[in-house]
Design a protein that fits this description.
The structure holds three protein chains of three kinds. By secondary structure, chain A is of the alpha/beta class. Chain A has helices at about 10-20, 50-60, 75-85, 120-125, 180-185; strands at about 65-70, 90, 110-115, 130, 135-140, 145, 165-170, 175, 190-195, 200-205, 205-210, 215-225. Chain A has one domain: 3-Layer(aba) Sandwich (Rossmann fold). The longest helix of chain A has 14 residues, at about 50-60. The N and C termini of chain A lie far apart (about 55 Å). Chain B is built from 13 helices and eight strands. Chain B has helices at about 10-15, 15-30, 45-50, 55-65, 75-90, 100-110, 115-120, 140-145, 150-160, 180-185, 185-200, 215-225, 235-240; strands at about 5, 35, 70-75, 110-115, 135, 165, 205-210, 230-235. Chain B is of the alpha/beta class. By secondary structure, chain C is of the alpha/beta class. Chain C has a domain at about 70-305: 3-Layer(aba) Sandwich (Rossmann fold), CATH 3.40.50. Chain C is about 50% helix and about 10% strand. Chain C has a six-stranded parallel sheet, sandwiched between helices. Chain C has a four-stranded mixed sheet with strand order 8-5-6-9. A two-stranded antiparallel ribbon of chain C has the order 11-12. In chain C, helix 2 (about 20-45) packs across helix 12, helix 9 (about 165-175) packs parallel to helix 10 (about 190-205) and helix 16 packs across helix 19 (about 385-400). The chains are: A alpha/beta, B alpha/beta, C alpha/beta. Chains in contact: A-C, B-C. At the A-C interface, helix 1, helix 4, helix 5, strand 9 and strand 10 of A face helix 2, helix 3, helix 4, strand 1 and helix 8 of C.
């Protein structure tokens, strides 16, 4: 089962733990010790529109830039964001709908870099921007969660480039709270929770944005109801 | 209603005026107070220094001395916290088949810090005091966090005729006394007390008041050493005062 | 050149030195006060904070009471997901395992995510001896490493350094470790962060092996969780080919769902944020994304000793948020180094003597490094009653008693220098238990009141060095009562 059946350190640690727990009644099963879960599963009742508005407000609180678009306006918006950034090379993972980036391409002087296993960290470091979708977003905390699903790519592509554009389909991808988010996520997938651009509190315990991850995080709320 | 005064060893020995003020105040409010002479120290200085065993006889003494009273009133939040928080833990380890634990459960529930007795039992906040001075109230840690006195002391002070109440910056922070901490970690204790003293002086108050004379001894000692004119005074002495002199 | 905690003086001596260091005091005061108010505001946003706290304590208690069960489930699930689990009873074992794993890759350097656990085991020094260089990548940990210094805070190991000091360190020392700091570096935090970004990027890009800790391990799924801000964690957890995580056994939680409690409590308690910028969750290895080899080293190193202590056990609930440090008036003035371990502040004062035992002066002094003000308990998101554990450990130091030391049940003898104090305490107890004797002592005090100096000699000097003595009254309360009432009852009517 463990592949290391006769590890003396393992036996020693487990024996110490069992001796240490001599006061726990023999008949007590792990689930017997009560866990009162009187906490809230969401903090307040919200309409879908309110939930999306809260997400936007909380993303902005932590210095992410928030944009809104319908499907029809999205290509132009994304093109504009990349142009304003001066991005020459953009990573786009498999599963990003081609129409999102219909306005971007060789014609616009932008090189689209696919997220392939052959893409080295050095090459990735020379990329200017990355455009992805996400698995879901959490309104109460202003968090995006990526799970490596379609349109999200490997974890490194949203880490090494300095500019991350993340598209959230609203309202379907937005949940209220952390408990709701965990309920929708698959723990067996590699998960990255992102709440604003990279930051540090390491200088005098005051928050400063921008260390190793993308220093600019732009979030596009893609309105599913709009044309 | 039988009410006993647990004056505490510090007040008995060094601050008898606080004990007298409690008697004056309670009698003025129509409460007949008894002082069982067999009372002693709650044991906190010993217990907080790690000496549990010599503390146990003092716990036993307390339960015997104060058995049978409806209320035990004490002008010390820290001693009340010792009785209510630590006595059950000490009694649980007495190894006497639960006898001490039962006695403690009985008497600890009836032990009240002075402001709890006034506000919760007597239901008064205006005790008819006059004290025309500027007063900074220091909420001691045991009053604030162990007993949860909340705004009781403040409500009592707000009703005192002529009194101007001031809140020092960082009011909820410990003054640095901490019993033997003041001696074992004298440098840190003095640094905490000095910062607290500065905050108190900055309020412009003439008097710093609290519900624990041990904290006030530490703060008063630092204020005096720094040549400050801010005078430490127990809350009971302000509440007992009718002419503004402090009991 | 990695400093260790060996040979640190007892708390009062180190603390007294820190109190005299004006720059250190100002740095700590500014940082802790900044975060204190913000934490309170972040916590106030959640109306169910008390319920979250209760649930967190209960989840941790459930885990601890059945730790063997949950560790075996964790091992099974990590293994199933492609990871390899190793067990280490103490620091040396953990360091040997990590050293061997790094050697097996053929690499001579590793990048590290901030990990108090590997500070505890002294991993960097052990790797150095084996010819392996460890690069710290957390900004504050980098400051500590460049300064050949020791951490002084759980969250911000270089909290004792202000921006001007950090700038100097970067300017003077970065070159010796890799890319030098940019010309004309100022002490603006954004510029300092940029300097760290440039300095570390080349290390991230070439690193083949990373060493991390973890904030949580989910037994039910085998998932590990690292909560961070800067992105250095993500770099270490996703770019290298081999990932080695050294994690204390108490970091286990039973179920995936339990994270919903801790991911709400930890960021608000720690950095006062609704959510920290980055959280990485991984289960074993994933084809094509992240490290292809994952090793989990489960560390005991005294944790099972703490587990054996029914009062001390609650200490193992700790999620290392550092809220207790930030609110502690003693920590603020004594600084983190005085606690002589990577675990400073109130939690360190209870954790270190339990992990290491109470045989030497530093560990014996730690339970006394508190005024018992209770602020730590109030802010603790997992409701560790730190004052209760402090008192419990004081008793162990003073009176001795049963304790488990490195897995062996032993009777601890009272600390040597406490013998005299013990005799004095017994004498005091005797006097206090005999009111007649107490009365005689009081009267002696009053008869000599004209003779009392304002400053005391001998052991009393610790009091009177900074404080005047209170004036001695003319008579005790009990004498006044006897003189004026006599009969034991007061006048007054009955209410």
């Amino acid at each position: 089962m463990t592949g290391r059946p006769h590890d003396p350190a393992r036996e020693r640690v487990l024996a110490r733990i069992r001796r240490a727990l001599a006061d726990v009644p023999r008949h007590e099963r792990p689930g017997d010790h009560p866990v009162p879960r009187a906490y809230a599963l969401t903090h307040g009742e919200r309409t879908a529109a309110e939930r999306v508005a809260l997400l936007a407000a909380h993303l902005e609180d932590y210095r992410a830039t928030v944009h809104r678009a319908g499907a029809a306006e999205l290509p132009e918006l994304l093109t504009g964001l990349l142009r304003r950034r001066g991005a020459r090379r953009v990573v786009v993972p498999a599963g990003v709908p081609p129409e999102w980036l219909a306005g971007v391409g060789a014609g616009a002087g932008v090189e689209m870099v696919p997220d392939t296993p052959g893409l080295t960290t050095g090459e990735l470091d020379r990329v200017d921007s990355v455009v992805t979708g996400c698995a879901l977003a959490v309104a109460e905390t202003g968090t995006l969660v990526l799970d490596g699903g379609p349109g999200q790519g490997r974890r490194r592509i949203t880490l090494v480039p300095d500019h991350h554009v993340c598209v959230v389909r609203v309202p379907s991808q937005v949940v209220d709270s952390v408990p709701q988010a965990l309920g929708r996520l698959d723990p067996l997938r590699p998960l990255t929770w992102i709440s604003g651009p990279s930051a540090t509190s390491d200088i005098e315990l005051d928050r400063v944005e921008g260390v190793h991850g993308p220093r600019t995080l732009e979030v596009v709320l893609l309105d599913e109801a709009a044309p | 209603m039988r009410v006993a005064l647990f004056v505490t060893c510090v007040n008995d020995t060094l601050y008898p005026a606080t004990g007298r003020a409690v008697v004056t105040l309670l009698e003025r409010l129509g409460v007949r107070v008894e002082f069982p002479a067999a009372q002693s120290c709650c044991g906190q200085p010993l217990f907080n220094s790690g000496h549990r065993r010599p503390t146990e006889p003092l716990v036993r003494r307390y339960t015997e001395v104060f058995a049978g009273y409806d209320h035990v009133v004490t002008p010390s939040a820290s001693c009340a916290a010792m009785v209510r928080e630590q006595y059950p833990r000490i009694a649980a380890r007495a190894g006497d088949g639960g006898a001490l634990a039962a006695a403690v459960a009985e008497v600890a529930a009836r032990t009240r810090e002075l402001t709890e007795f006034l506000v919760d039992v007597l239901g008064v906040t205006d005790v008819g005091a006059r004290f025309p001075r500027t007063v900074a109230y220091h909420p001691t840690c045991h009053g604030l966090r162990a007993l949860g006195l909340g705004d009781r002391p403040r409500r009592l002070l707000e009703q005192v005729d002529g009194l101007r109440l001031r809140e020092p910056a960082g009011a909820q922070e410990c003054c640095g006394f901490g019993g033997t901490f003041a001696v074992k970690n004298a440098a840190v204790s003095a640094a905490m007390g000095t910062d607290k003293a500065r905050a108190l002086v900055a309020t412009g108050a003439d008097v710093v008041c609290a519900v624990d004379n041990s904290c006030l001894a530490h703060l008063g000692g630092i204020l005096a050493r720094r040549g400050s004119r801010v005078r430490p005074l127990h809350l009971a002495e302000i509440l007992a005062s009718r002419d503004g002199s402090g009991a | 050149m990695s400093r260790t905690y060996v040979g640190m003086p007892a708390f009062p001596r180190a603390a007294a030195r820190a109190v005299d260091d004006a720059v250190l005091r100002a740095n700590l005061r500014r940082a802790t006060h900044t975060i204190r108010d913000r934490r309170a505001a972040a916590v106030a946003e959640l109306a169910d904070w008390a319920q979250l706290r209760t649930a967190a304590a209960a989840i941790k208690d459930r885990t601890l009471r059945h730790l063997d069960h949950y560790l075996l489930r964790l091992e099974e699930n990590v293994t199933r997901a492609g990871g390899t689990v190793h067990w280490a009873a103490d620091a040396d074992e953990a360091n040997r395992i990590v050293t061997r794993l790094v050697r097996d890759t053929g690499e001579r350097e590793v990048v590290k995510v901030k990990s108090m656990t590997t500070q505890e085991t002294g991993l960097n020094a052990a790797l150095e001896e084996a010819g392996i260089r460890a690069y710290e990548t957390d900004l504050a940990e980098l400051v500590v490493q460049l300064g050949d210094d020791l951490p002084s805070h759980l969250l911000v190991p270089a909290i004792h350094r202000n921006r001007a000091e950090i700038r100097e360190l970067f300017r003077d020392r970065m070159g010796a470790w890799g890319r030098p700091a940019p010309e004309g570096l100022t002490d603006r935090p954004a510029e300092l962060a940029e300097a760290a970004r440039l300095h570390l990027r080349e290390k991230f890009l070439r690193a083949k092996v990373a060493v991390s800790g973890a904030n949580f391990m989910v037994a039910e799924t085998g998932t590990l969780v690292v909560v961070e801000s800067e992105g250095n964690g993500r770099m270490c957890l996703t770019l290298p080919e081999t990932l080695i995580s050294v994690v204390g056994i108490e970091k286990t939680v039973p179920a995936w769902r339990d994270l919903e409690v801790f991911l709400q409590l930890l960021p608000r308690s720690s950095t006062a944020e609704r959510m920290n910028p980055y959280t990485t969750m991984w289960t074993g290895t994933t084809d094509g994304d992240g490290p292809s080899a994952f090793h989990l080293v489960l560390l005991d190193n005294g944790r099972s000793d703490a587990l054996a202590d029914v009062t001390g056990r609650q200490t193992l609930r700790c999620i290392r948020c550092s809220a207790c440090l930030n609110v502690c008036p003693v920590y603020e003035r004594a600084g983190g180094h005085a606690y002589g371990s990577p675990y400073p502040g109130p939690i360190g004062a209870v954790l270190t003597p339990q992990l290491r035992g109470t045989a030497s002066p530093l560990e014996q002094s730690l339970p006394f490094a508190s005024s018992l003000c209770g602020a730590c308990y109030e802010v603790c998101p997992v409701a560790i009653d730190i004052p209760e554990v402090l008192l419990h450990l004081r008793e162990r130091v003073v009176e001795g008693g049963e304790a488990t030391v490195r897995g062996v049940r032993t009777v601890v003898r009272p600390a040597r220098r406490r013998a005299l104090e013990g005799a004095a305490a017994r004498a005091a107890g005797l006097v206090l238990d005999h009111p007649a004797a107490l009365r005689r002592a009081q009267r002696l005090l009053y008869r000599t009141r004209g003779l009392h100096p304002r400053r005391l000699p001998g052991p009393g000097r610790a009091w009177s060095a900074a404080r005047d003595l209170p004036p001695v009254p003319e008579e005790s309360f009990r004498d006044w009562w006897a003189r004026t009432r006599g009969d034991g009852a007061g006048r007054g009517g009955t209410a």
